[in-house]
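Re: zinc ion structure - here you go.
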Amino acid sequence: MIVDSHCHLDQIDLTPFNGDISEVINQAEEQGVAYMLCVCITMDNFPEVFNISSQYVNVFASLGVHPAEENTHDPSVEELIKHADHANVVAIGETGLDYFHCKGDVTWQQDRFRRHITAAKVLRKPLIIHTRDAREDTLKIMREENVQEVGGVMHCFTETWEMAEQAIDMGFYISFSGIVTFKNAKALQDVAKRVPLERMLIETDSPYLAPVPYRGKPNQPAYVRHVAEYIAELRGITFKEVAAATTKNFFDLFTHATAS
Ligand SMILES: [Zn+2]
Ligand SMILES: [Zn+2]
């Protein structure tokens, strides 16, 4: 059994699945992907994300506004709390900082990030953090806002070992996506070797970032298996060990997610 700890089921083009999201979930289950966390990126997406999680017992939801979504409704702490205060919503995010996609004055991003952290602390739900080209500020805000109170995951991790270590010290998990399977991802592969197994999660971030051998094609939760297989080979352990550890970690972190 494996878990895709981060996917965007609501963003997947269903044309190759006969327009039916059940088919996406079936194909994942056929590959041993027993649970999926469908991650929200804007308030407009949330009804659909929530709807999918209500329809399938093995799909959980999150609530958050992605840091690179600039021209979208920016929710208050109260709004975030109101919508996320439901058993299906197991995490707050994705949130964080993305200076790659947004340049110039990024105060609005930092404020948004802080509001998400406040909401997570009120609800006692973990955070899903996205960080890109914003290493120092991400860690600074995490520290200032005491994220260790709720913990969380550094999703689709592509940063340095030093950053991974500091996040782990704050009670965070490090999640690897298909990027780790890319030929040119040597530095990241080194990080994936060093992160303790009991701090690791795996994800697809589908429909983006398909792992080898599907690189460049649309991604789907079924492919998280390739991420697990790759990490097992990289660390010289079995697929089963990676599967067992990352599944346990998922349910340890997302305590509101109940196995069915
Ligand atoms: Zn992200
Ligand atoms: Zn994502």
